[in-house]
Amino acid sequence: SAVISQKPSRDICQRGTSLTIQCQVDSQVTMMFWYRQQPGQSLTLIATANQGSEATYESGFVIDKFPISRPNLTFSTLTVSNMSPEDSSIYLCSVERGEKLFFGSGTQLSVL
Amino acid sequence: SQQGEEDPQALSIQEGENATMNCSYKTSINNLQWYRQNSGRGLVHLILIRSNEREKHSGRLRVTLDTSKKSSSLLITASRAADTASYFCATFYFGNEKLTFGTGTRLTIIP
To answer: Does the beta-carbon distance from B41 to A45 stay under 8 Å?
Structure first.
Protein backbone atom coordinates (compact mmCIF):
# COMPACT_ATOMS: atom_id res chain seq x y z
CA SER A 1 0.00 0.00 0.00
CA ALA A 2 0.95 3.67 0.06
CA VAL A 3 0.15 6.53 2.41
CA ILE A 4 -0.20 9.92 0.76
CA SER A 5 -0.43 13.18 2.63
CA GLN A 6 -2.16 15.88 0.56
CA LYS A 7 -2.64 19.48 1.51
CA PRO A 8 -4.46 21.75 1.73
CA SER A 9 -7.63 19.74 2.24
CA ARG A 10 -9.75 22.64 1.08
CA ASP A 11 -9.41 26.25 0.07
CA ILE A 12 -11.52 29.12 -1.12
CA CYS A 13 -9.71 31.34 -3.60
CA GLN A 14 -10.33 34.50 -5.53
CA ARG A 15 -10.54 34.59 -9.29
CA GLY A 16 -7.17 35.24 -10.95
CA THR A 17 -5.05 33.85 -8.12
CA SER A 18 -3.09 30.57 -8.00
CA LEU A 19 -3.10 27.68 -5.57
CA THR A 20 -0.39 25.08 -5.08
CA ILE A 21 -1.37 21.62 -3.85
CA GLN A 22 1.24 19.36 -2.28
CA CYS A 23 1.44 15.58 -2.04
CA GLN A 24 3.93 13.63 0.04
CA VAL A 25 4.21 9.85 -0.32
CA ASP A 26 5.53 7.58 2.43
CA SER A 27 7.95 5.83 0.07
CA GLN A 28 9.60 6.35 -3.29
CA VAL A 29 7.49 6.07 -6.43
CA THR A 30 8.35 6.56 -10.07
CA MET A 31 5.12 8.12 -11.24
CA MET A 32 2.57 10.31 -9.51
CA PHE A 33 -0.78 11.11 -11.04
CA TRP A 34 -2.90 14.23 -10.69
CA TYR A 35 -6.68 14.03 -11.19
CA ARG A 36 -9.50 16.53 -11.26
CA GLN A 37 -13.03 15.72 -10.18
CA GLN A 38 -15.57 18.34 -11.10
CA PRO A 39 -18.73 18.56 -8.97
CA GLY A 40 -20.78 15.39 -9.31
CA GLN A 41 -18.47 14.00 -11.97
CA SER A 42 -15.93 11.25 -12.36
CA LEU A 43 -12.16 11.59 -12.19
CA THR A 44 -10.22 13.01 -15.11
CA LEU A 45 -6.47 12.58 -15.34
CA ILE A 46 -4.66 15.91 -15.62
CA ALA A 47 -1.07 14.73 -15.91
CA THR A 48 1.50 12.14 -14.94
CA ALA A 49 4.54 13.42 -13.04
CA ASN A 50 7.87 11.60 -13.34
CA GLN A 51 10.85 12.57 -11.25
CA GLY A 52 13.53 14.34 -13.26
CA SER A 53 11.46 14.98 -16.36
CA GLU A 54 8.60 17.14 -17.56
CA ALA A 55 5.12 16.02 -16.64
CA THR A 56 2.99 14.43 -19.34
CA TYR A 57 -0.32 16.23 -19.75
CA GLU A 58 -3.58 14.76 -20.99
CA SER A 59 -5.61 16.28 -23.77
CA GLY A 60 -7.30 19.44 -22.60
CA PHE A 61 -4.75 20.26 -19.91
CA VAL A 62 -1.72 22.50 -20.41
CA ILE A 63 1.40 23.21 -18.43
CA ASP A 64 0.78 26.95 -18.22
CA LYS A 65 -2.51 26.35 -16.42
CA PHE A 66 -1.44 23.35 -14.31
CA PRO A 67 2.32 23.47 -13.73
CA ILE A 68 3.64 20.43 -11.88
CA SER A 69 6.84 19.94 -9.96
CA ARG A 70 8.42 16.62 -9.03
CA PRO A 71 11.66 17.41 -7.20
CA ASN A 72 12.17 13.91 -5.78
CA LEU A 73 10.63 10.45 -5.66
CA THR A 74 8.32 11.15 -2.72
CA PHE A 75 6.93 14.62 -3.42
CA SER A 76 4.98 16.52 -6.06
CA THR A 77 3.04 19.74 -6.38
CA LEU A 78 0.26 20.83 -8.72
CA THR A 79 -0.47 24.52 -9.18
CA VAL A 80 -3.81 25.72 -10.47
CA SER A 81 -2.97 29.04 -12.09
CA ASN A 82 -5.04 32.12 -12.88
CA MET A 83 -8.10 30.47 -11.41
CA SER A 84 -11.67 30.96 -12.55
CA PRO A 85 -14.90 29.57 -11.06
CA GLU A 86 -14.71 26.74 -13.62
CA ASP A 87 -11.65 25.45 -11.75
CA SER A 88 -13.78 24.68 -8.69
CA SER A 89 -13.22 20.94 -8.25
CA ILE A 90 -11.62 18.31 -6.10
CA TYR A 91 -7.99 17.72 -7.03
CA LEU A 92 -6.44 14.37 -6.17
CA CYS A 93 -2.95 12.97 -6.34
CA SER A 94 -2.32 9.26 -6.57
CA VAL A 95 0.39 6.66 -6.97
CA GLU A 96 0.32 3.13 -8.34
CA ARG A 97 1.36 0.08 -6.36
CA GLY A 98 0.79 -3.39 -7.75
CA GLU A 99 -1.64 -2.20 -10.46
CA LYS A 100 -3.77 -0.42 -7.87
CA LEU A 101 -4.03 3.32 -7.31
CA PHE A 102 -3.67 4.87 -3.87
CA PHE A 103 -5.01 8.37 -3.40
CA GLY A 104 -4.40 11.37 -1.25
CA SER A 105 -7.39 12.72 0.67
CA GLY A 106 -8.07 15.35 -1.98
CA THR A 107 -8.14 19.15 -2.12
CA GLN A 108 -11.56 20.72 -2.42
CA LEU A 109 -11.10 24.00 -4.26
CA SER A 110 -13.75 26.69 -4.56
CA VAL A 111 -13.06 29.72 -6.73
CA LEU A 112 -15.15 32.85 -6.22
CA SER B 1 -14.29 8.42 -24.79
CA GLN B 2 -13.21 5.18 -23.20
CA GLN B 3 -14.87 6.10 -19.94
CA GLY B 4 -17.04 3.42 -18.38
CA GLU B 5 -20.70 3.99 -17.77
CA GLU B 6 -22.16 3.03 -14.43
CA ASP B 7 -25.69 2.14 -13.65
CA PRO B 8 -27.58 3.24 -11.68
CA GLN B 9 -26.29 6.77 -11.10
CA ALA B 10 -27.81 6.72 -7.63
CA LEU B 11 -29.15 3.95 -5.39
CA SER B 12 -30.86 4.08 -1.99
CA ILE B 13 -31.51 0.89 -0.01
CA GLN B 14 -32.33 -0.13 3.53
CA GLU B 15 -29.54 -1.24 5.82
CA GLY B 16 -29.10 -5.01 5.59
CA GLU B 17 -30.19 -5.24 1.96
CA ASN B 18 -27.86 -6.07 -0.90
CA ALA B 19 -26.66 -3.38 -3.31
CA THR B 20 -25.78 -4.07 -6.92
CA MET B 21 -24.17 -1.62 -9.29
CA ASN B 22 -23.07 -2.16 -12.86
CA CYS B 23 -20.30 -0.91 -15.09
CA SER B 24 -20.07 -1.12 -18.88
CA TYR B 25 -16.97 -0.30 -20.92
CA LYS B 26 -16.07 -0.05 -24.57
CA THR B 27 -12.81 -1.78 -25.50
CA SER B 28 -10.78 -4.81 -24.46
CA ILE B 29 -9.32 -4.48 -21.01
CA ASN B 30 -6.43 -5.87 -19.04
CA ASN B 31 -8.22 -5.51 -15.73
CA LEU B 32 -11.16 -3.75 -14.11
CA GLN B 33 -11.11 -2.25 -10.64
CA TRP B 34 -13.66 -0.87 -8.21
CA TYR B 35 -13.05 2.08 -5.91
CA ARG B 36 -15.04 3.75 -3.14
CA GLN B 37 -15.13 7.47 -2.41
CA ASN B 38 -16.54 8.84 0.81
CA SER B 39 -17.89 12.39 0.84
CA GLY B 40 -15.81 13.62 -2.10
CA ARG B 41 -12.50 12.67 -0.55
CA GLY B 42 -9.76 10.32 -1.74
CA LEU B 43 -10.68 7.05 -3.40
CA VAL B 44 -10.04 3.70 -1.77
CA HIS B 45 -9.28 0.61 -3.84
CA LEU B 46 -11.76 -2.22 -3.24
CA ILE B 47 -11.07 -5.03 -5.67
CA LEU B 48 -9.33 -5.85 -8.96
CA ILE B 49 -10.53 -8.44 -11.43
CA ARG B 50 -8.47 -9.50 -14.43
CA SER B 51 -9.79 -10.06 -17.92
CA ASN B 52 -9.39 -13.83 -17.59
CA GLU B 53 -11.39 -13.96 -14.35
CA ARG B 54 -15.18 -14.14 -14.11
CA GLU B 55 -15.83 -13.62 -10.42
CA LYS B 56 -13.98 -12.43 -7.37
CA HIS B 57 -14.87 -12.05 -3.70
CA SER B 58 -13.54 -9.88 -0.91
CA GLY B 59 -15.44 -9.92 2.37
CA ARG B 60 -18.96 -8.65 1.62
CA LEU B 61 -18.00 -7.66 -1.92
CA ARG B 62 -18.56 -9.78 -4.99
CA VAL B 63 -17.44 -8.65 -8.42
CA THR B 64 -18.29 -10.30 -11.71
CA LEU B 65 -16.84 -9.63 -15.13
CA ASP B 66 -18.38 -10.52 -18.48
CA THR B 67 -15.87 -9.64 -21.20
CA SER B 68 -18.25 -10.72 -23.96
CA LYS B 69 -20.72 -8.06 -22.82
CA LYS B 70 -17.99 -5.66 -21.70
CA SER B 71 -19.62 -5.29 -18.32
CA SER B 72 -18.96 -5.80 -14.64
CA SER B 73 -21.08 -5.73 -11.52
CA LEU B 74 -20.30 -5.02 -7.88
CA LEU B 75 -22.48 -6.62 -5.24
CA ILE B 76 -22.33 -5.47 -1.63
CA THR B 77 -24.12 -7.89 0.65
CA ALA B 78 -25.71 -7.09 4.01
CA SER B 79 -25.20 -3.36 3.55
CA ARG B 80 -24.27 -1.08 6.43
CA ALA B 81 -24.61 2.66 6.95
CA ALA B 82 -20.83 2.94 6.55
CA ASP B 83 -21.18 1.68 2.96
CA THR B 84 -22.77 5.00 2.01
CA ALA B 85 -20.36 6.37 -0.60
CA SER B 86 -19.79 6.76 -4.33
CA TYR B 87 -18.48 3.71 -6.14
CA PHE B 88 -16.42 3.91 -9.33
CA CYS B 89 -15.28 1.27 -11.75
CA ALA B 90 -11.97 1.85 -13.48
CA THR B 91 -10.56 0.04 -16.47
CA PHE B 92 -7.00 -0.58 -17.56
CA TYR B 93 -6.89 -0.95 -21.33
CA PHE B 94 -4.30 -2.81 -23.39
CA GLY B 95 -1.82 -0.31 -24.76
CA ASN B 96 -2.89 2.36 -22.30
CA GLU B 97 -0.85 2.89 -19.16
CA LYS B 98 -3.61 4.71 -17.30
CA LEU B 99 -6.75 3.79 -15.43
CA THR B 100 -9.94 5.28 -16.85
CA PHE B 101 -12.70 5.89 -14.33
CA GLY B 102 -16.40 5.37 -14.86
CA THR B 103 -19.17 7.81 -14.07
CA GLY B 104 -19.85 6.43 -10.61
CA THR B 105 -22.82 5.22 -8.56
CA ARG B 106 -23.85 7.15 -5.47
CA LEU B 107 -25.02 4.63 -2.86
CA THR B 108 -27.04 5.66 0.17
CA ILE B 109 -27.78 3.16 2.94
CA ILE B 110 -30.82 4.10 5.00
CA PRO B 111 -30.51 3.04 8.66
So the answer is: no
